[in-house]
Specification:
Length: about 290
């Protein structure tokens, strides 16, 4: 009879599973930290926009013989800058601009991909190929993710003030423009680092789920960062192990675990969960005389 210990350690007997688990944990941790800022700033769709916009950059980098990571980063950053420019110079709202930009660039990427003669598989770009992670891929991802984490954690208070009130941040002398574009650069780097693990489509969920879950569970940002990172790392471990046993894609399994975590938090959170709100609603509706 298979024990829980065997269920956990069995997959780790294979080197490719060890690398898959390691890169999934690294990606989950950095995505979780950034997701807290994206949720507070209302930038969840920005992660969606950049992740889809990297596809034409990947194709063009392949044609030019350049590293795919370089093309992905250039395309993602261009998407972020183009979105900011259109928002500032038109009457269209930011979410509408992001929808137009990312869908247009993603469509361009699909057209370019069909015209390029390559043995690269589109499925690996869209959905990731974490089981094919090499030692070099793991090192590159760790360097990008580690650098991003260091920058965010060093300036986390400044970023927090800017997310809540850009006007106040400007008043107290914070470099608002630098923080704005710095966060966009970090977001683009994180998405590029996550492509190998979960692909273009699923990275969006990893940039939203942990922050949304933590937001339901606490009102303090420091705790929000810790909760988001903890739940994301846990989902990476559980999702990767489950994917081995049920023969499923690890990226999709990780995202499903994160979705389950959010549903549980939305229902059971002590203060902001649906059940807690339902219990307090009748009491709040009573008059003082009652």
């Amino acid at each position: 009879m298979t024990t829980m210990l065997d269920w956990i350690t069995g997959p780790l007997a294979y080197p490719f599973m060890q690398r898959a688990l390691a890169v999934s944990v690294v990606v989950a941790a950095v995505c979780a930290v950034l997701s807290c800022y994206l949720v507070l700033k209302g930038w969840s769709l920005m992660g969606d926009a950049i992740s889809h916009a990297v596809l034409p950059g990947i194709v063009l980098a392949y044609v030019a013989g350049l590293p795919l990571v370089l093309g992905a980063f250039a395309a993602g950053l261009s998407c972020a800058l183009l979105t900011g420019y259109l928002k500032q110079n038109s009457r269209i709202k930011e979410d509408t601009v992001m929808g137009i930009v990312f869908s247009g660039l993603f469509g361009l990427g699909l057209v370019l991909f069909t015209k390029v003669d390559t043995d690269q598989h589109l499925d690996h770009i869209l959905f990731g190929n974490v089981l094919g992670t090499s030692t070099r891929d793991l090192i590159e991802t760790a360097i990008v993710a580690g650098g991003t984490l260091v920058v965010v954690l060093v300036r986390w208070r400044d970023l927090l003030v800017w997310c809540f009130d850009p006007g106040h941040a400007r008043t107290i002398g914070l470099p608002v423009r630098t923080l704005h574009y710095g966060l966009l650069v970090l977001l683009a780097l994180t998405i590029v680092a996550s492509l190998k693990a979960v692909g273009i489509i699923l990275v969006v969920a990893m940039l939203i789920g942990p922050g949304a879950t933590a937001y339901m569970l606490t009102d303090r940002f420091g705790r929000m960062l810790v909760i988001a990172a903890s739940t994301a790392v846990a989902s990476a471990i559980v999702g990767t192990l489950v994917s081995f046993h049920v023969d499923a894609a690890p990226g999709a399994a990780i995202v499903l675990v994160q979705a389950a975590q959010f549903v549980a938090a939305a229902l059971l959170a002590p203060r902001h969960g649906m059940l807690a709100r339902r219990r307090t609603a009748p009491a709040a509706s009573r008059s003082p005389a009652e």
